């Protein structure tokens, strides 16, 4: 490699290493991934743990032994009151989470819960399940008294279920967010690096001085561009390693990962490395192009903000479970995140991989051609 290019790369990387804020951001940002996996894992476990909750309700009537068995099965604790006023007082004192009032004349059960809260809705659902079970019990008793075979009365046909889904919805969202942060890490680091190519040096008045040295503009530009690519790749590699490690560890602690197989084959590793390399080259070029006309550091930051906005799109695609076509793999940045997810969930196809890498190479050539032409212009180099 050209000596001047190597010197420029070393200079830029050295300046980044000395910039503690950039280094901290580059190293800490990927840590969001394991933190997020721990958060969602605990939240998922918390949702499942609610199935073990005991519900406290009040009733203003005497229950049968059969109803007591239902309460015990559904994990319902109850208190008996002589009047509705007593139930209201118990609810106000938070002794119960809801109550049932029975009108013997109209043979009506009325459920009282707070439907505006999650706990109230769950209490209402468990009370309805109790009443439904009790109604079923009374029906069975009536049929037996009429000498009717329950099996013939109910089992007219059999029902079986087959789950057509191939993944846990929350897990799919979590993986999508994780790979989004990997690509977003590239956007953050390359954008930060790109602002130093002309914006910061133009603002500090050092660009003209550098160009007086025995170095060509193309060599200067190539060195700065490659240093940005290296930084983006390192940042994404840290995020990728943290994602894989977090998922492997999460499988041992969280039931959310039950049945999920992380594909860690040589093909997957090579494919993912190729994708993050392509992403680093492309995003670094786009960041450089976007900051080419920026006169100040703040202006350069604003011009690269759209890159991070685009990174969020695949997360929304996962949320709405949109059916993807081959065209989606031609959309830069979005295709990087999707193909990474496909690789690690064994859903990647050679066609989509070739579409992603092939289109990215074309985009990189277009972006670099634009950058070279732009930075050969005196207007770009010396705009103030």
Quaternary arrangement of the chains shown? single chain
User: Could you give a short account of the major beta sheet?
Assistant: 4 strands, mixed
Give the helix proportion (percent range).
55-70%
As residue ranges, the low-confidence spans are none
Q: What is the chain-wise order of helices and strands? A: HHHEHEHEEHHHHHHHHHHHH
Find the structural class using helix and strand composition.
Answer: mainly alpha
**Between the first and last Cα atoms, what is the distance in angstroms?**
33 Å
How large is the radius of gyration? 31 Å
Tell the overall outline.
elongated
Number of helices: 17
Strand coverage percent = 5-15%
Please tell me the overall pLDDT: 80
DSSP strand count:
4
What's the short story on this structure?
The chain has 17 helices and 4 strands. With 384 residues, the chain is mostly helical.
What does it look like?
The chain is mainly alpha-helical and 384 residues long. The protein is 66% helix and 5% strand. A 4-stranded mixed beta sheet has the order 2-1-3-4, sandwiched between helices. Helix 3 (32-49) runs parallel beside helix 11 (217-250), helix 8 runs antiparallel to helix 13 and helix 12 runs parallel beside helix 16 (350-375). The chain is elongated, with a radius of gyration of 31 Å.
Which keywords apply here?
4-stranded mixed sheet; 384 residues; elongated; mainly alpha
Strand and helix map with partners:
Layout: H1 3-18, H2 20-28, H3 32-49, E1 55-59, H4 65-73, E2 76-80, H5 84-92, E3 98-103, E4 108-112, H6 118-145, H7 150-154, H8 169-194, H9 199-204, H10 207-210, H11 217-250, H12 266-290, H13 297-311, H14 313-319, H15 334-344, H16 350-375, H17 378-382
Parallel strand pairs: 1-2, 1-3
Antiparallel strand pairs: 3-4
Helix pairs in contact: 1-11, 3-8, 3-11, 4-6, 8-11, 8-12, 8-13, 8-14, 8-15, 11-12, 12-15, 12-16
